[in-house]
Amino acid sequence: MTILDGNKISNDIKDEIAKEVSLMVANGEKTPHLAAVLVGTDGASMTYVNAKVKACEKIGFNSTLIDLPEDTTEEVLLEKISELNTNDDIDGFIVQLPLPKHIDEQKVLMAIDPDKDVDGFHPTNVGKMALDLPTFLPATPYGIIELLERYNIETSGKNVVVMGRSHIVGRPMSILMSQKRKAGDATVTVVHSRTKNLDEITKKADIIVAAIGISEFLTGDMVKEGVVIIDVGITRVPDETKQRGYRLAGDVHFESVSKKASYITPVPGGVGPMTIAMLLKNTLLARERHRG
């Protein structure tokens, strides 16, 4: 069993991006600039955004954090997005989800200029992805594709089961894995909360992408020998033996599933670091597009 080390691969990608940024600076070009908008004080969101800012510093990007209070109105947030859309110094930006309940997430995502949408969530970019046109790929699915490619995991003709149908992971993952690409050409099945005989489907899978949002849902008796496991989930599970009172768990029961898996991502240290690396890669792409 091989651990798919997202920390290592993401650091490799950051090193590659840092070299490109050094060349840009040496040629007198503008440094890539990523902005992040954070509304409120959600703990997980603050952690993610801070990790993104630190990653920007590490590779030589400029970064801007726009920290707005929890009670920010939708109107004020949309004005801020409009400013970022027209600010030529900003190459790409993200609005950290989830947003407070009084703000319409879809309206906010629609307001982002598709050419600066480095999260890859705007309908224009999702449509281009579905049509296999050049675009910003959603960062988490993009990271998973990159992880599979860099570990040379064969996907062509394989039976891939994607657990979950969210717009952020499940649905784009199913599209990308079925396309003609190195980590693609797979036969993809999407399962979700209404799927019947779920374990019969997962037992036939060569590769499982678990993004169902239920901690340790996928267990060893639901998979076959040699399966490749990509665990997208991350949940805080109460654990009194830990100093902080909890442990981080994925959607996969690591102990039982890892005994059968040929490859498996850990939680943490698997998909999470890859998501940040691909966000940076999308920002570099945005900077290159804006060169003219």
Helices and strands in order:
Layout: E1 2-3, H1 6-26, E2 33-39, H2 43-59, E3 62-68, H3 74-86, E4 92-95, H4 105-111, H5 123-130, H6 139-150, E5 159-163, H7 170-178, E6 187-191, H8 198-202, E7 207-210, E8 228-231, E9 235-238, E10 246-249, H9 254-257, E11 263-264, H10 271-289
Helix pairs in contact: 1-10, 2-10, 6-7, 6-10
Keywords, separated by commas or semicolons:
3-stranded parallel β-sheet, alpha/beta, 2 domains, Rossmann fold, 292 residues
What does this structure look like?
The protein has 292 residues and is α/β, with parallel strands linked by helices. It folds into two domains: 28-113, 3-Layer(aba) Sandwich (Rossmann fold), CATH 3.40.50.10860; 139-272, Rossmann fold (3-Layer(aba) Sandwich). It is 39% helix and 16% strand. The protein contains ten helices and eleven strands. The protein has helices spanning 6-26, 43-59, 74-86, 105-111, 123-130, 139-150, 170-178, 198-202, 254-257, 271-289, and strands at residues 2-3, 33-39, 62-68, 92-95, 159-163, 187-191, 207-210, 228-231, 235-238, 246-249, 263-264. Strands 1-11-8-7-5-6 form a six-stranded parallel beta sheet. It has a three-stranded parallel beta sheet with strand order 3-2-4, covered by helices on one side. Strands 9-10 form a two-stranded antiparallel ribbon. Helix 1 packs parallel to helix 10, helix 2 (43-59) crosses helix 10 (271-289) and helix 6 crosses helix 10. The chain is globular, with a radius of gyration of 19 Å.
